[in-house]
């Protein structure tokens, strides 16, 4: 595994920050590798492949810089401790000295067991080439959708900060990124790969992105800043358009309330709903109040956390309004069957004990059927 040794002052000063260029880089990695979010790749992959086909110089730099399990530092250096405009972030990459970029690429190839860099690569200026590509990704893919993406990232940061205040860094880092966990004694496991450990001091940044799996960013020229780029929480990071509410449901409840009702499967907080819809918090609160009064949603609180979820009536209403061949309807049926199976398994030992005490419950009886189909109470979430 790869781990960082983080001193106390660095951890105390660590912060969450939004980086527009990190969002663009996450999109670039997703398009280059063609994995993960298929809707995103299908929507933007053809334009990306046409662009890169016209630029063999950029393609050569990418092939050497994006290695299996490794991303050359110059391609995505940690940015400032506060958010900066995209132009400033890209300009920093553009000004990367050629000597540093080539040394960084050679290091990436060596650590990942790749072949030596081709001679023609030595005649190129990697920094300006990557900057040009990131500008295209930003302007073509990210910028038109940036307001929505930014709301997603802000909502994730609010939720992570609340985890931090309630449970410390162990809680905040628990599900931040695959293979990442707090080891204790100032050690943070970064991933499962076997790369040399790194001592981290100075600034430590946590940067959410709505597309991509994330990575760690450092700069050998300046060890004063390190960054961990991580995927925003799954309920928020929907890079494609959300599935609209059924027309019949929209006519019955109104388009906004219908959309909120559909979004509450799975359960969400008001912060998440703001991020996904772009509506004001007060507006969402008023619509949720109507849905609560109608008995279509539940509101559960645990400390400072609040989560809204569908009641049985709300779920039935959505199901009735959808066509029989709706893929969400099929997915919901699968989730419901899975939940029922899990509840049935968890309840089995207790059921047998009660059966022995009360003289038994006949298999297939109404009581046994009710126990097997019981659904769990909603879990508390972020507000």
From TrEMBL:
Domain of life: Bacteria
Entry annotated with the keyword DNA-binding: yes
Location of the region described as Disordered in the Swiss-Prot/TrEMBL record: 344-383
Keyword DNA-binding: yes
GO molecular function: DNA binding; DNA-binding transcription factor activity
SUPFAM superfamilies for the chain: Winged helix' DNA-binding domain (SSF46785)
Keywords: DNA-binding, Transcription, Transcription regulation
Pfam families in UniProt: HTH_5 (PF01022)
Protein name: DNA-binding transcriptional ArsR family regulator
């Amino acid at each position: 595994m790869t781990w960082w040794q983080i001193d106390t002052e660095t951890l105390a000063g660590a912060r969450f920050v939004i980086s527009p260029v990190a969002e663009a880089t996450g999109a670039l990695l997703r398009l280059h590798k063609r994995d993960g979010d298929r809707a995103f790749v299908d929507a933007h992959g053809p334009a990306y492949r046409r662009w890169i086909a016209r630029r063999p110089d950029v393609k050569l730099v990418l092939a050497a810089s994006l290695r299996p399990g490794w991303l050359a530092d110059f391609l995505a250096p940690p940015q400032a401790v506060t958010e900066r405009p995209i132009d400033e972030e890209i300009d920093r990459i553009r000004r990367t000295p050629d000597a540093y970029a080539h040394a960084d690429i050679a290091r990436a190839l060596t650590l990942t067991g790749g072949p030596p860099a081709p001679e023609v690569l030595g005649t190129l200026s990697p920094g300006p080439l990557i900057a040009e590509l990131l500008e295209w990704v930003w302007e073509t893919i990210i910028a038109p959708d940036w307001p929505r993406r930014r709301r997603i990232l802000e909502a994730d940061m609010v939720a992570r900060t609340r985890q931090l205040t309630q449970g410390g860094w162990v809680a905040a880092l628990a599900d931040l990124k695959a293979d990442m966990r707090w080891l204790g004694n100032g050690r943070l496991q970064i991933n499962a790969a076997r790369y040399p450990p790194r001592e981290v001091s100075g600034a430590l940044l946590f940067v959410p992105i709505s597309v991509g799996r994330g990575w760690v960013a450092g700069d050998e020229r300046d060890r004063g800043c390190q960054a961990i780029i991580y995927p925003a929480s799954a309920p928020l990071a929907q890079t494609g358009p959300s599935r609209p509410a059924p027309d019949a449901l929209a006519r019955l409840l109104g388009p906004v309330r219908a959309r909120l009702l559909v979004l509450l499967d799975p359960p969400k907080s008001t912060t998440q709903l703001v991020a996904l819809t772009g509506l004001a918090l007060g507006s969402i609160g008023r619509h949720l109040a109507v849905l609560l009064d109608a008995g279509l949603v539940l509101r559960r609180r645990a400390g400072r956390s609040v989560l809204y979820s569908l009641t049985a009536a709300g779920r039935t209403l959505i199901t009735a309004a959808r066509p029989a061949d709706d893929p969400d309807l099929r997915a919901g049926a699968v989730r419901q069957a899975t939940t029922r199976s899990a509840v049935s398994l968890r309840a089995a030992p207790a059921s047998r004990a009660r059966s022995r005490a009360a003289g038994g419950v006949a298999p297939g009886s109404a009581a046994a059927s009710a126990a097997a189909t019981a659904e769990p109470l909603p879990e508390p979430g972020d507000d």
